[in-house]
Amino acid sequence: MSKTDTDLQSDVKAELAWDPSVQAQDVTVTVKEGIVTLTGSVFTFAEKLSAEAAVRRVTGVRGIAEELSVNLLGVHQRNDGDIASAIATGLDWNTRVPKGSVTALVEDGAVVLGGTVEWNCERVAAYQAVHHILGVKSISNQILVKFRPADATDIKNKIAAALKRLVRQDSAGIQVRADHGRVVLDGTVHSWTEHDEATRSAWSAPGVTDVENDLVVVY
Question: Would you say residue 169 has pLDDT above 60?
Fold first, then answer.
């Protein structure tokens, strides 16, 4: 039996309250036709990400509109120079980020990551190295994945094989299109976990530079 919007709202609120990494007293949850909207504020950017992750764990959520702002407490505030220095150190000390491949621009706590890497996992690692740093209010990840010529049919087949191994439900509901390094995923999955796993699998194929996940979560 599917949840009503009222049931879903209650479950999301309970999950936010249950997660010790989220202080949800200033977060408002509304639900319409299974789409959850978060408004209000949190104290750090990392907490904002944790709030979104908490919503994704709740069964029945069809979509998320995350409109939270970061309202830094005094103890969390840093000037842009200190933030940029901390980011540079974090990137240099991260073994998954190729040294010298990523740049960071900081303006009023808003971080823009640039540069070029070989794999999306390196792009993700750079983002993860930054999101917990004090003073960060937002991150725009503009790091590019280097294009490597590869056969589109080969990319499609490798992604399809990976999805068959990793998606718990029948992966036949997922269609894969590939063209010049860009992959589009269409169809349906049965959870946000499967939705995200499909994205990760697509990014793992050699030659992929962009992934568009249009999968719909159907419970």
Answer: no
Residue type, 142: Q
3-state secondary structure of 146: coil
> CATH classification of 75-145 is 3.40.50, yes or no?
no
Q: CATH second-level architecture of 5-71?
A: 2-Layer Sandwich (3.30)
What's the pLDDT tens digit per position in 119-160? 999 999 999 999 999 999 999 999 999 988 888 888 888 888
Q: What is the CATH number of domain 152-217?
A: 3.30.1340.30
Contacting residues for 57 by C-beta, under 8 A, at least 6 apart = 15, 192
**Residue 202 identity (one-letter amino acid):** A
Run of H or E residues at 31: strand 27-32
The model's confidence at residue 193, banded by pLDDT at 50, 70 and 90, is: confident
Length of the chain measured in residues: 219
